[in-house]
Design a protein that fits this description.
The protein has helices at about 20-40, 45-55, 60-65, 65-75, 80-85, 95-105, 115-125, 150-155, 175-180, 215-220; strands at about 10, 110-115, 135-140, 165-170, 185-190, 210. The protein is α/β, with parallel strands linked by helices. The chain folds into 2 domains: about 5-20 and about 90-220, HAD superfamily/HAD-like (Rossmann fold, 3-Layer(aba) Sandwich), CATH 3.40.50; about 25-85, no CATH class. The radius of gyration is 18 Å and the shape is globular. The two termini are about 30 Å apart. One of its GO terms (molecular function) is 5'-nucleotidase activity.
Length: about 230
């Protein structure tokens, strides 16, 4: 499925790949509509319809992910509202074992996320995820989302890498397709990003897994640990 022996760098999405997407889905589809209705004195159904319409209009753009944009647009403190349900932030299955295996076998691990720096900090405080990887890059540092093919070229400024020796793991098919178009050699999709929702169908051209335990044996077989003898 993946040629682990050819790799130097593994780019990792965060939400839906390392962390359970349930937090974000619950926030945008349930918690925010409820608080938006209260804040603007609207019926819950009307508030949700308004929000979903506004959000979907920004899909695929950096605004879609921008906490500052939505705080200004909605006249609400989005990061503060996210912290209200911070107890829902958590890892997906087998993530710690997967990240430790990457480290043990000499692969550089870099989180490459569309998450805005403010909620990113909230998630790192809750999980300590930054201690398990080599570095983290937010698309907001480059001014364009991962869906934009130019993002992957601009990423070289912050994290130099050889595209031919790089793997991207992400739950977003549009992002994976963008990376492939930019020359990233290998991609791996995640089919079960939200623990409260059913898994999705696999991509016709990109290999996919439900959870990281499906690749641990292959990594260890293809990249045996250095001998200490």
């Amino acid at each position: 499925m993946i040629n682990w022996t050819s790799l130097e760098t593994v780019f990792l999405d965060m939400d839906g790949t390392l962390l359970d997407l349930h937090f974000d889905n619950h926030f945008w589809l349930e918690h925010l509509p409820r608080r938006y209705a209260e804040h603007h004195n609207l019926p819950p159904g009307e508030a949700k319809d308004q929000l979903i319409s506004m959000i979907m209009a920004e899909k695929g753009t950096l605004n879609w992910y921008c906490t500052d944009y939505w705080s200004n647009r909605l006249d609400m403190d989005i990061t503060g509202l996210k912290s209200e349900i911070g107890d829902r932030i958590g890892y997906r299955p087998h993530v710690a074992d997967f990240l430790q295996t990457l480290k043990n076998t000499g692969l550089q691990s870099v989180i490459v996320t569309n998450c805005h720096p403010d909620p990113l900090e909230l998630k790192l405080q809750r999980t300590g995820l930054d201690t398990l990887v080599d570095s983290i890059v937010s698309s907001h540092q480059l001014g364009k989302p991962k869906e934009d093919t130019a993002f992957w070229h601009d990423l070289q400024r912050l994290t130099p890498y050889r595209a031919s020796a790089t793997l991207l793991v992400d739950d977003s098919f549009p992002v994976l397709e963008s990376a492939r178009s930019a020359g990233i050699a290998q991609c791996l999709g995640i089919l079960a990003p939200d623990s409260k929702q059913a898994a999705r169908k696999t991509h016709e051209k990109i290999p996919c897994v439900h959870h990281f335990d499906e690749v641990l044996t292959a990594i260890q077989a293809q990249r045996p640990l250095p001998s200490t003898g």
